[in-house]
Amino acid sequence: MAKVDKELEEFRNIMEVPSTFDEGFRWSSLLGAVFVALLMVPGAIYMGLLAGSMEIAEASRWVTVILFIEVAKRAHRTLTKAEIFVLFFMASAAMGAPFSGLLWNQFFVNSDAAAATGISEQLPLWFAPPRNSESYDARSFFHLDWLPVIGMTIFGTFFGQLSNLILGYGLFRVTSDLERLPFPMAPIGAQGIVAMAEDLDDRADKDGQMSWRWRVFAIGGAIGLTFGFIYLLLPTLSGAITGRTIQILPIPFSDFTGTTGRYLPAVATGLSWDFGNLIVGMVMPYFGMLGSFIGLVVTMVANPLLYKFGILHNWKYGDDTIATIFKNNVDFYFSLQIGIALAIAVAGLLAVIRSVRAARAKQREAGGAAERAVLRPEGRGDIRTWIVVACYLFVTLTYIGVSALLLRWHHGEWTGGIRNIVLMLLFLGFVYTPLISYVTARLEGMVGQVVEIPMIREAALILSGYRGVACWFLPLPMANYGQMTVFYRQCELTGTRFTSIWKAKIFLYPIILISSIFFMNFIWGLAKVPSSAYPYALKMWELNAANQCIMFSSTMGEYSMFEEAFNWRYLSFGAVFGGVLFGAMNLLGAPVMLVYGVVRGLGQSLPHAILPQFIGAVIGRFYFQKRLGLKWRQYIPVVAAGFACGMGLITTVGVGITFLNKAIIKLPF
Question: 637 lies in which domain range?
Fold first, then answer.
């Protein structure tokens, strides 16, 4: 008999699928999308550069929904859960900003890392114009040199969203309707919609009692407003008005590595002051946060030993967090992560195989027919299976054809390397993508986890024998559509017809494109990106560029940083260590989330958020959950949504004032 993970059972029992489904798309919903595109998108872009903060993206959804609820009241209407869910979806989609990558592209082609490795001279024209382009001096994307980049962005976002929606739906049909998996994490994302809808219902109730969800959401919103004023609004306003940024709490984090390096060599230390990390720790499963903390402690013990034995040989006293993490990646963790990730992937595949065998055995015991019946609720808005298959074939073949044409254009002729790339794309599109998507869909349905087989894309491109860096920027037919199954489960839990989502996406797409390119150009025109005006981007982007150059250099046909970072011994050790870890945890009956948490803590990602997240998990587990029981699992997702809304609202005010200040033209008299 299979073991039951008690923590996952808490998430499974939060919500149930309704018996009826409603149409959530209305023409008035487009006004919500326009509202987000014009007011929230620029704020989200700005705050992402300033503090790496995405709370405003969460706030955009809540602001849109609250605004439309109040407007509906004046019109004597009540919004259904389906209408609220579609508004949420449209607001989230509007925040996608498909052209946000253009800011990164213009930075990367001119970055020190790309120049030092010789990559900047080999970048294809559909990624960024050459470094001598006039557009960089003018800081404008509305230039002929950027047309190939803009065209490829439109192509990639259109086909990516089409395949994600349709193929994700197909996998949901298999895992939810046929295999009837529970999707334990899906209720977290649906709680906010229910909070709004129940509030409306309770206000109309004769007893006139307010919904507990609305009260809890308001508490979270008040906390977000208060903290956001100190953490984000004050630095934003001070920088806009006085030209000097005042930070009471350092953004993005306090870095202690330069001081603690004397006692903890090769260990990145510091602390993120974002209160949202405490909330995240409370929302996420406790054992996942405990595992992350254990992994962090193991890293803090292991790194000084690895430094002592000469494995982390590039680190030197005085290096900050960014330099420490990058050097440790090159020396050891790059290969170790690949090995551990391989172990995770194998464990995920084995879990799927076991579950399939168990399901088949159960069917045989029950006589077969009844258990194999497909569960398809009436009125949900399903489409025929052949449409899903046709979409998959069309998108995959289009990706492969366009990639071949781009390489032919870049090199001016058809080469053996291009032929090999096409063969690799056929493997990625028709073998890897369906396999990993199905495995992920099953894991999402069973335990709420995503599996990725590491370095498949990288290995395919390296083994192809191609020489150059253009292959890294192709529209590859490689994706993991299994993650979309959770979205469709949330859609189902709120009683929303799937056709509502598809209609909304059709009408929303052009709005997103126009607003995104306009505001990207506007923000680039305000100041150089990155610069001192955007402290998060200034601190983190160079690290990201250096890490990317490790991989890009692997296909340049000469000694590269990739060869220095890739080590079979460390990779093998990581794979064995990960396998032993999973085996030991399984024998001890440890919670599933503890295993994934430990791996995350060992992942050599920025450690500064792990401690506050663990503190939040401890407070939630041993104080609030003891007092409130299972209700705590219902309360905290709503608190988190309210907190994000409050943070987003207060930062939107600061961004608006900043934009107005930057847009003022000072006259000389």
Answer: 6-180+238-663
